[in-house]
Design goal:
Blueprint: E1 2-8, H1 10-13, H2 24-40, E2 45-50, H3 53-63, H4 72-98, E3 103-106, E4 112-115, E5 118-122, H5 125-132, E6 136-140, E7 142-146, E8 150-154, H6 156-171, E9 174-181, E10 196-197, H7 202-205, H8 220-232, E11 237-242, H9 248-254, E12 261-263
Parallel strand pairs: 1-2, 1-9, 2-6, 3-6, 4-7, 9-11, 10-12
Antiparallel strand pairs: 4-5, 7-8, 11-12
Helix pairs in contact: 2-9, 3-4, 6-8
Length: 266
């Protein structure tokens, strides 16, 4: 069984420099590509995740939610971040449903518990059952409860990386992960894209990784590459591609894309 996890980056589906501003034309273009992927690969299992973009990152920054909640105001902030994440996911889900794609929104809040921001327990039965029913899980970065600090944030990248590991190790799926963002890949200081990142060359590339210039509480490109490099050691290839270009997502799933950055074991 083959599983492809697709992340639609927050910088892609929203304008990260304009709070609470979605990019509906980009959402429609991406949904059209997912429709084509599903049509051409009827046996392929898909899990789709969306970033928080200019929605939940705004409230998460305001209330410092990633570092926990201790006051009544921070508790309210935790809930507002969750609502912002839901609001963006709902906008995206409607595009999928209008295209007759059977997506089911599933929040990490109901599946993951952390301790001092580290994963403590997870239960992905809802994801499993959704896939078995022939539906498409639509996950997203969100708040989660934390045993030590009350709550924190689990990024979409972390969620998808955990799901990739889970289905690879527990179900022996052939797994690939594709990150479609508002950038052509991982770039150096001159804008040139690194075609491949591995453990062998990571130390040379690491100095060029930077956090997002927009509001981003979960680490930007540096954290993304670290997450993907960790699962690449299992044999899970991870692509970082430009989601603005029509057809790029289809090509990445088909294995014919020649642009972007491949994060792999070798």
């Amino acid at each position: 069984m083959e599983l492809v996890l697709i992340k639609l980056g927050g910088s892609l589906i929203t304008d990260k420099d304009k709070p609470y501003t979605a990019r509906p034309e980009i959402m429609a273009q991406l949904v059209e590509q997912v429709s084509l992927i599903r049509h051409e690969n009827p046996n392929l299992k898909l899990i789709i995740g969306n970033g928080a973009g200019s929605f939940a990152h705004q409230s998460a920054h305001k209330y410092n939610t990633i570092n926990g909640f201790f006051s009544d105001e921070q508790k309210s902030g935790f809930c507002l971040v969750h609502q912002d994440a839901l609001d963006l996911n709902l906008i995206l889900a409607k595009f999928f449903l209008q295209a007759c794609l059977p997506v089911v929104s599933l929040s990490p809040l109901t599946m993951v518990v952390t301790d001092k921001k580290k994963l403590l327990t997870s239960n992905f039965w809802a994801i499993e059952n959704t896939l078995q029913a022939g539906l498409i899980p639509l996950v997203f970065g969100d708040v989660v409860l934390d045993k030590a600090i009350g709550g924190t944030i689990l990024s979409t990248d972390t969620m998808l990386a955990e799901l990739a590991k889970y289905f690879y190790l527990q179900h022996k799926f052939r797994v690939r992960l594709i990150n479609a963002g508002n950038y052509p890949g991982v770039r150096d200081q001159n804008g040139r894209v690194f075609s491949n990142i591995t453990q062998a060359n990571y130390s040379q590339i690491q100095p060029f990784l930077s956090k997002s210039e927009s509001v981003d509480v979960t680490g930007g490109m540096a954290k993304k590459v670290e997450e993907f490099l960790a699962i690449s050691s299992l044999g899970i290839d991870c692509w970082i591609i430009d989601g603005n270009i029509p057809g790029n997502l289809v090509k990445a799933v088909s294995g014919v894309l020649t642009q972007g950055t491949l994060i792999s074991a070798v």
